[in-house]
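Q: I'm writing a short explainer about Glutamate receptor for a general audience and would like to include a description of its predicted shape. Could you first generate the structure from this sequence?
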Amino acid sequence: MGGSAAFFRPFSLCSDSGLIIRQFAMNVIWVLVLILLVFSNGHFSNGVSTNSSNRPEEVKIGSMFAFSSAIGKVAKVAIEAAIEDVNSNPAILRGTKLNLTMHDANFSGFMGMVEGKHFRHVEYLCYMEFLKCLKNQRRTLALKFMESETVAIIGPQSSVTAHVVSHIANELQVPLLSFAVTDPTFSSLQYPFFVRTTQNDQFQMAAIADIVDYYEWRDVIAIYADDDFGRNGIAALSDQLAGKRCQISYKAPLDPQATRTEIMDVLVKVALAESRILVLHTYPTWGLDVLSVGHYLGMMDSGYVWIATNWLSTVLDTDSPLSSESTDNIQGLITLRMYTPESELKRNFVSRWKNLTTHQMANGPFGLNTYGLYAYDTVWLLAHAIDAFFSQGGNISFSNDSRLSELNGGNLHLDALNIFDGGKLLLNNILNVNLTGLTGNMRFSSDRSLFRPAFEVINVIGTGVRTIGYWSNYSGLSVLPPETLYSKPPNRSSSNQNLYLVMWPGQTTQKPRGWVFPNNGRALKIGVPNRVSYREFVAEVPGTEMFKGYCIDVFTAAVNLLPYALPYKLIPFGDGVKNPSCTELVRLITAGVYDAAIGDIAIITNRTRMVDFTQPFIESGLVVVAPVKKLNSDAWAFLRPFSGSMWMVTGGFFLLVGIVVWILEHRLNDDFRGPPRKQVVTILCELGIHESRLIALNSPEEYEEALKKGPKNGGVAALVDERAYVELFLSSRCEFSIVGQEFTKNGWGFAFPRDSPLAIDVSTAILKLSENGELQRIHDKWLMSSACSSQGAKLAVDRLQLKSFSGLFIICGLACFLALLMYFVKMVGQYIRHYSGEEPESSGSSRSSHFQTFLTFADEKEEDVKNRSKRRQLERDPNRSNDGGMESTSAASNRCTEMASNRSVSFGSGV
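A: Of course. Here's the predicted structure. Afterward I'll give you a sentence or two in plain language.
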């Protein structure tokens, strides 16, 4: 991540004139000497491969990073401590020692330039061309190298340097283990020998995206260093935000060597933007300078949100306590810190830290940051991998690189660089290591990222910091440490995402809205249709710049509920002669003519493609209006909805459907073995209307006149318009009514530019108006008339009186009476047949007894009556019963005799 950036001006590489160029060339050559001295994988003795025993006395490794940077000075102490701990433990490498050679990336201008902007895009071939160019300086230098057999390199620290060195590592098959490069573009495919032993910025940006989504913000501004580290990190942030339906609305790149004036120029542009969510992704060396300029410009006040990547936590852990000025500049900020779980091993190392840094504090004391922990664990990871390498029979040997041998004879002797034969085996062992270190469980997933990445979410308060939660790739945001959640199923639902209360800039705990109106809060230009009809909805007050109407009152009431002031100016749209096109008004928002539009604007498909609408504040849709024809209501009024032919067709379909059902079901369903049952059929008729029969009408007065004339007198039979207009039209014209159902559904809303946060806030306010009844009150004020309401007119027309159905009731009554009469006659006949002559009829008591017997008979099931009647008949004719019995007995006897005979025959055959 880090690394100091040197300050150099552009130069001509191949210029052979000038003292500055010659001095620079000498500096570069000396740096190359040191690099080859440290990292040469062979020696000058004719490029012969070097072989060592299986378990040599020592293994040479190198390291390169900026010793003076916030990350490098901590990492240097941690790496030296790790080398000492590994070498003092014979159980790790079983007698073999690690021999570390360290190179300071800030040693000269060359490495500083590589980390700066002038060599941001240097690749391997460009690197070779640069070396060839140096040879043209005609400088002879006797390059003498010590024999070195480096098998791995810890570093580099910056992304720019890593891109250059990784190509060389690929060529020489020497693993690079970086504890500080967080650039997410170092994929395993392009850089197979690069191993990241720290957290990937892809996960840090995922954490920031989750934080933005958690607080329901949608737009952020990215302020970043304009180099590989900054650009690639922000690209990852953009991808993560897109997954949350959020975006980076403005990118503010900064030159890695930017001056305070340049920083101020960039932040002034940021202050004029709409979003107030600022993500700062930069280096520890000048990140505080950006915040200092932001404080000077008033960008640390209430309403702003600053989210700093883990560079700020690195500064706080390393250089605390900060100066009072720097502390004031970071109040209320949120920053991330790579999460390392608490353990006995970590606590012991933290307690050693003061003793380890006693002799390192010439420039003042410094604390332990998480990069130092990862640097320490990197050495142990490499030691375990080397031990496994030897256990698998690996040897430290090197071979000539034919492509580098082609440069033999050059002054730089690049042909001395050889390929590490065991590089691939050592790389595989590095990726397969699984150990518990200061940072917790250290092993790699399939994409070569550290297993289960996690971050602390930190809020800067006063002179200290407060952990407000954690983020892990496993379960997202939580107030519980990540390791406590690993035993539970992962849950990334919004209800399961939690953070503690934050103290925001400006010393407030209220969540900032996250945006303001651009251009220093100028008044919004809001377009309003200048209607000439139905002015109850929206109308310009003559002689003023004011508007009135239902839509205006709704908008004003919604704005009054917003938690902030909304400066705006209403601008009429239209010529005042005819009603303007709302679609054209919406289009002008996309063209930047208006910032919003309010009025009777229906939310329809083609408009939603251009702008964002608020929650609908009134339902609408197309309906048909026709004159009400008053007819006398008589006993047969229920027959009028259908014509005579319609009744005939309906009756015919009763029979047709019954026959079809009977044919389909009678062989399968017992219920259809008899005559088919009658079915109910509803028949509907769609009446097409030719376009030539449509007439455009522009005002309620024209509506009324056309409907009264009718189609035979040059008018219309019905009109089609939106329900909102129709309700207002019918509120004072009871002789018309809505016919049929609403055949489209939409609503009216206020229009704002795409992704405008104001649309969300106004929608919330409209919902509040609906809940507290204010929306209905405004509706009644403008759209309800005392003369006649559309609902009352419709009910008066649709209701039928009792006499309208008297004929139907008479038919039903007669049918019921006849059915009961027939049933009663049938039942009396059955009673007379079954009970006649059983009791004498000589007394009044016998008549009462007959009546009670009749009631009992009427309550019995018909099946029981029939069974009792059969028994009585048998009792009355006993001879018939005996003959039947004797006949049955004889038949049974004959059957038994026949069966016995059959058995006898069977037995006889068996004998």
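A: For your explainer, you could say: The two ends are 110 Å apart (CA to CA).
Q: Perfect, that's easy to follow.
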